[in-house]
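Below sits the subject:
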Amino acid sequence: MIAIVLDETPKITNWIELIDIMYMLADFHVEKVTSMLHGFRDHEDYLVAYNATRALGLPTDDVVKKFRAQKTAVKPTAPSPPPPSPKRKWWQNLFDPK
């Protein structure tokens, strides 16, 4: 059964399902499963890496710092557009026509 799980888990693309499975796998306490969970600690998705670390019972400080550093390292390429101006109400035109 563990062999099937080890073969199929890396093929999962839905991160929500992957996180659920990681917590179930951690209860097996098998070296191959533990090494697979350690591999998920370097996942590109923050929630997968964070939850893999939690499933192993390890502190999550390093994962949080890693992803915060990545977020601050990425600079936006274009400034964000200004917020839309509020639409004038009909009664505002009565008292202050522009």
User: Anything to note?
Assistant: Helices lie at 2-8, 15-26, 31-40, 46-55, 61-73, 90-95.
